[in-house]
Amino acid sequence: MKFTTAATADGLRLLTSLLVIGSAASMSSYRERRLANVTVAPENDNTQFHHFLAHNMTRTCSADNHATPFNNQIRGVNLGSWMVLEPWITPSMFYQFLGGDETNTAMDMYSFCEILGPEEGNKQLRRHWDTWVTEELIEELAQSGAVNSLRLPVGDWMYKPYGPYIGCTDGALDYVDDLLDWAHARGLTVLFDIHGVKGSQNGFDNSGQSQDFEWTSALNTEPAGLVTFQHWGIRSAAWMGEFDRETIEYTSTNYENIEHALETIQEIVNMYKGHPAVLGLEPVNEPWQYTPIDELKQYYWEGYLIVKKDAPYWKYIMHDSFRFDVGIWGGFMAGCPDRALDTHIYQAWQDPASRISFYNNACAQKSAIAKMEAAFGPVIVGEWSLATDNCAMWLNGFNDNLSGFPRLPCKFVKCADPYMGTEQPGTPVDPGKPMQGPYGTGMSGPSFGLCPVDRDWMKERNIETGTDWMRAPPEAPRHLDATDEVMTALARKKISAFSGIGHGFYFWNFRTELDEPQWSYMLALERGWISKGNLNDDRILHACHKEDEGLFVCMSTRQTESATKGGMKYALGVDGVNSTYVDSLSGDALFDAADIVFSKFWEDHKGEGATCDFGGAAQLQEFNKTYDDDDDYYKDDDAHYFTKEEARTSLLILTTFGILVGSCFGFLMAMAFNEKFSNKVSRSSVVRRVTRRFTSHSGSNVRYTEIPEHQY
């Protein structure tokens, strides 16, 4: 066993901290174990793998020859709330806790197992696992033509159980095995996403445990017996150590928790390294923005070495810690093959705005993603949705909400029947009861059998302002409902931005229990918001025509000649072009030729899901582009909307007016130039009835003649 003795700042800081707490054994476990059983190069700083060299001091790599080329975009969905419960996605699992008090209320996976105990908790979880993700649903996703990968959130407790999870989650891995087989049989890949770690990486319920939760029943001024709690104002995350809310810094590092997470990575690698469906691993989901960035990068690096030692063909996808900043991630793990950066882009927490504002925001991500791809490398949008408001019930926690949310009134629909059957305790929701406690600092929950969901979009007179939508009731009358049009346009723009420039996406979520197509990929497909077979949809490719601020071109990185030649041969081979000439090229001639080959291939095939990667030999570059003023920016669903009644009325008025004007003009012309017609009109009974008097002109004199009464 060898251990690096290089005196780097990172290494000294880590070593000093470990010595202070008197844990030399932990140091060996945390770093030395990671290098065990891998070939270490003569230089103590380097770790030699089969196809590249890892530099531990700088956390970079040499010889970036992708073990698995990243030449195809990911078009995937998340299988959320299956292995890691989230109350807002599967509320039927948590209705049983409505009306409870401090001793019998569960709000996340941890407390679910804690309150119910291992036997009852496992019984309910098995019923849930059986029905939330099924082979039939995976088949439906595969047949849609709009999915090629599945992101599977898992908890570290599934592989190294602790606390209330012991016994409660027994059997979970059997279901994971089934999923891998279902996916492989249908040509889908699976990305393992460690969604929850010991101590919680963000304090959210999606980590398995809401951190720094506090019951406030004894402090409230409401009527006696009202059960209340608070969470958002005091939220914390203890995975990395102890957090001081006053200084907004960590005062210590919890190496035991970090080691537990690294051991979880090793367990996952050991179990699934030979399964052909596995795309790769995400070492932790959404570590919050206060996570010490250097410690997080070190964790990512150590996890990467574990994966590459035993699963060299896996992708390694790291979340940006809510800091999508080229200054933080640019150059990190430079040259290391098969790694990507994950960023999550939601609009649900934005202030209410016009549809145009949401469109522009979606398409603006193109430029940000392109810049990160140039500075870091492949980018994947690991989570996104079509939600433009915060209305989904319990989105911000069980019976809770963020202060000031939702910004606009929400639509209410009948709470869904339980997906796992009526034997689930607490289901269905009692339609005779108002909203029940315990109550958080915000309000969200079922009331009289109705549950809040995202509001409808309205047809508007001025789509630039959005004022009609913001002032409108949350449920649009059928003839004013523009939800389908707005969501279809928004979906195309988001997919264009996330996959047209980056390396793909995973939609959150594959489905929801409530009727929430803004959060359900399957419902969005059913509604036609997302096209089935959308890998080849030209409407997606050009969806951001108006909002694009630049022109993106796939160009050679001009770094490694071997990788460049490999990329060129791949592109030419797909197109059936002889590539023997490539071997004779070198230097600028090679890279110039690569620019032509890469850019043409990407333009020709990006609509089919091609990336600008070519084994790390290419990246997108943005060039300024100017649009003409008369460009037709908005078409179809981007057009200004009027109600159908208004459109029909306007058309009728214009048509009638045109007929009247034309008739009058024709009549006057006939009277003036056709004497026979003029005389006939003058003698007609109609004219005599409606005309009491007529005038005759003789010079400047005017003479009036009475029409005899008997002629009427």
Automatic annotation (TrEMBL):
- Record's Pfam families? Cellulase
Recorded GO cellular component terms are:
cell surface; extracellular region
Q: Does the keyword Hydrolase apply?
A: yes
Give the residue range of the signal peptide: 1-26
InterPro entries assigned: GH (IPR017853), Glyco_hydro_5 (IPR001547), Glycosyl_hydrolase_5 (IPR050386)
Give GO terms: molecular function aspect only.
Answer: beta-glucosidase activity
User: Ranges for the Glycoside hydrolase family domain?
Assistant: 128-386
Gene Ontology BP term (one): glucan catabolic process
Please give the coiled-coil regions recorded for this protein: none
Which controlled-vocabulary keywords does the entry list? Glycosidase, Hydrolase, Membrane, Signal, Transmembrane, Transmembrane helix
Domain of life the protein comes from: Eukaryota
- Which spans are transmembrane here? 651-673
Regarding protein family, the annotation reads: Belongs to the glycosyl hydrolase 5 (cellulase A) family.
> PANTHER family given for it?
GLUCAN ENDO-1,6-BETA-GLUCOSIDASE B (PTHR31297), X8 DOMAIN-CONTAINING PROTEIN (PTHR31297:SF38)
What name does the UniProt record give this protein?
A: Glycoside hydrolase family 5 domain-containing protein
